[in-house]
Fold each of these.
Amino acid sequence: QVQLVESGGGLVQAGGSLRLFCAASGLTGSPYAMGWFRQAPGKEREFVAAISWSGGTKYNSDSLKGRFTVSRDNAKNTMYLQMNSLKPEDTAVYYCAARRGALRSGATYEYDYWGQGTQVTVSS
């Protein structure tokens, strides 16, 4: 059974930083790509960043590039999202997702497995 569990969210002041974690289990036997998405109240889920199995290929949302960095440690079955210079508009529930095989894109339909999300709130 595949399980993705996010952690690291919380309340932070504008300009601050947070590091999100996504622990994966059950995805054994084959490589898998992973991604981060977020959803603010009343808005659609949007792509944040994604990373290939090796970590050699990364996709980032153009609007977030330079502030958010995705990485992973396959030995720990964990993906990370380092978020710097946070803004109130970054407030959202952040989800991690995974798909078996190669990294394709940031489209939500490309991902087969999803976590429950972790809340990030940035105060002004």
Amino acid sequence: QVQLVESGGGLVQAGESLRLSCAASGRTFSTYCMGWFRQAPGKEREFVGGISRSGGNTYYADSVKGRFTISRDNAKNTVYLQMNSLKPEDTAVYYCAADPTGCGLLPARAYDYWGQGTQVTVSS
């Protein structure tokens, strides 16, 4: 089992950047595929990006491709989401998630463990 805690959210203006972090407990972090999701008010939770166990493969939603970068540091049990050129439509609660079984462009239901979320608000 793994526990996840996100941080780094905040209020920024359009065009600015933020880096989210997700710290994981436990000694098996490197065995999990990790993902970032977001949920805006009144909308379903949507996939943002994913990363393989070693970090060698990354996956992105079309809406963030070229602007967001996901990375991980297995020595620090942490996964990151670097968000550049933020837009008002990126406003949402951002969640990290862990999946012990598979990596890729996977829906939320594929992930077993979730953090509590961190709010990102982008003003125009």
